[in-house]
Amino acid sequence: MKSMKNLIRILLLTLTIMSCQKDFVNSDVDVKIAAPSEVSAAFKITNDNSGLVNIVPESNGGLKHVVSYNDGSSESDTLDLGQSIDHTFAEGNYEIAVKALGYNNLTSSNEVPLVVSFRAPENLEVTITNDSAISRQVNVVATADYATNYSVYFGADSEAVTANAGETVSYIFPEAGTTTIRVVANSGGSATTVYEDTAFNVTAILQPISSAPRQQARAASDYISIFSDTYTNEAGVDTFPDWGQGGQGSSWTTFDFAGDSMLQYINLSYQGITFSASDVSQMEYLHFDVWTAEVNRIETSLISVGTGEKPVWTVLESDEWTSIDIPISAFTDQGLSVNDIHQLKFVGDVFAAGTVFIDNIYFYRAATGVVTDDIEDFEGTAPVIGTFGNAAVAVINNPDATGINTSAKVAEFTKPAGAEVWAGSNIVLDAPLDIVNFSKISLKTWSPKVGAVVKMKLENADASITHEVDINTSVANTWEQLSYDFSAAPAADYVNLVVFLDFGNAGDGSVYYYDDFQLVDDSGSSLSSPIQSFDGDTPTLTPFGNAAIAIISNPDSSGENTTANVAQFTKPAGAEVWAGVTLDTEVLDLTNYSKISFKSWSPTAGATVLVKLENADASVFHEVSMNTTVANAWETLVYDFSGAAAADYVKVIVFYDFGNTGDGSVYYYDEIKLTN
User: Fold this and answer.
1) Can you give the residue range of the structural domain that contains 469?
2) Do residue 240 and residue 127 come from a single domain?
3) What is the pTM of this model?
4) Buried (b) or exposed (e) across 287-298, using 16+ Cβ within 10 A?
5) Are residues 426 and 501 in the same domain?
6) pLDDT given for residue 116 in this prediction
7) Is residue 518 a contact partner of residue 441, using CB atoms and an 8 Å limit?
């Protein structure tokens, strides 16, 4: 009997462990395997007229390679990644065939021309140009009959840079000026042909080659503009009041780039801007954009009628636009009154020795609400919806007009049994999406299952530029709103909106619905309630699964997050796949706020960040996962908890890189908020 009791105890313990583990299993795995690409080869020909050539196969994604010489001899054995092979050729022209072997036995091939000649190259043609977009970069292209490759010496004491004939070689000089550029064309023999330019003038780009970044749409009550083409500027602004700058050799003009007007301060020493006294105490930031090739830092001072001036220094990036957002608190913390600001002052470092271009000078605060712009709601004339991968789409009457979606019409998406894992639908838009002023796209979805991946992809007209974001459904058989952050998408005219339901899984006959595509700008929404900012008293944080947590000074005070302190989340090597951190908080108001947002910094894009809410005894909980979209930069993640069951949630649990064993990576998060 005692043995029987022990057996029962063991079985109960095993079931308990299995139940706990199940809570942390993430069964949605999206694996995309592509054939190798960019298949090529590099050649090194022995300069002894022997015809011996060393061949280094290259590819993106290839694990092994096979080389066919196309000279009547047998192809090479299979070569490991990075392995080269020698082969002796007779003099002549060859097309060397390289086959790259990748994952799942996927292969790609390409032919690379090879010239084996035992005579010096002839008819050498060399083109040397200054790059039009990169300051002090010189580009060289050389071709010649009988040439296999060529070497370029950028300056008398430089090392050679070698490339195949017809390829471009580039080099950025530390300074502008006259230099010697020597080009040596090589063949299969010892003889070479040389071209030399002893007086090539390396030029620096000293003015912008693009407009300043576009500014987002703002309500008139949310900004005070001094100089900007985007907003209405204050009356009576003088951008060059002449405070004696001419005595330091400074001057001023306006610079026009393709219709975009900006201020140009030449040999900047100090420069003032005057305007009618303005109360900027309700604003949160001073913004301006600076381009320079010569100035290291810029000092910015606000000048008050009553309390004088206070400065803030900012480091500038060279040869590109630097977007600067200085908190108004940086001035008030120095004792400056900001209810009577009537002047700005800029000072250059190095003093009076470099030119700056300045645009978009304005004060601003967070938007007083969320701004949206409709893309498609299916209520009017039905759009043309394309399908692929055996998916089917139709515009129908809303089959579940409840909750957040009571509209009449929706799109019905069917993924029949056997449909491709990438089955989806697309809408070709009449005009490009404005993701400059609206960085997010929201979508209402209805899914029969929790955890289905809903992928949204943007494409330009020829699909040469794309960007995609994944979100998992968090509820079943009810409408929920998904918010996709496209702030990291490269600039392009996106006109194709693509949606994949249950991406990564073959069709099983499930039916989904979606509705109300909207562009959204919530970058500065005040419709939020702070949970934790880590800048006051240290909260109660409890790590588990071998995770580690600490409150530290912000290691990357830039972009979306310039606060002083952040939470550092470390997932050491060997930490559990479910390692995370619990934040104890007051009861969360999910009645008035349906979402939770926080700022996140991850060393990798695509890491799953799971957020889980629990009541006091964890008897009621709800979890939502998102993937990071950028690496080594702050981004805002917004989690929709509108589907959470009613409860007094007092724990916010964060899991970084959920589903993967710890590898020593370090993550940061901050500014946890309830939001709409």
Assistant:
1) 371-521
2) no
3) 0.42
4) bbbbbbbbbeeb
5) yes
6) 87
7) yes
